[in-house]
Amino acid sequence: MLHNFLFDICGLKGAFTLEKRDQQCIDHIRRMVVRDKIVLILVSGGADTTVCAALLHKALLQGDDSLRVQIIHINNSFLSKDESEQIVTTLQQLGLNHRTVASHFFLKPAI
């Protein structure tokens, strides 16, 4: 019944692969981002922003130009214990050039 709905009624082809989707995203980024521009992305450490940062990095890295994608992780002080360190480790494992900024630098103490 599910097969009938997906393929016969909805017309899906069943040709989806993660590799194809990855390449589609990379191609889209390359079409949308103007050449020689720098892209800034704030990474929370969640799956969405981390995957987006990795795709931007793959799509826009050209030669030794590792500065084209600027990835900033903001430790907002609302993360779980050691979560910011885990995010940094993940970004490093993905080979992403990033900076971490602690939010307490932006907050003024209460008077």
From TrEMBL:
InterPro entries given in the database record: GMPS_ATP_PPase_dom, Rossmann-like_a/b/a_fold
Keywords: ATP-binding, GMP biosynthesis, Ligase, Nucleotide-binding, Purine biosynthesis
Domain of life: Eukaryota
Keyword ATP-binding belongs to the record: yes
Residues where ATP binds: S44, G45, G46, A47, D48, T49, T50
Record-annotated GMPS ATP-PPase domain positions: 16-111
PANTHER family to which the protein is assigned, alphabetical: GMP SYNTHASE [GLUTAMINE-HYDROLYZING], GMP SYNTHASE-RELATED
Protein name stated in the entry: GMPS ATP-PPase domain-containing protein
Organism whose genome encodes this protein: Daphnia magna
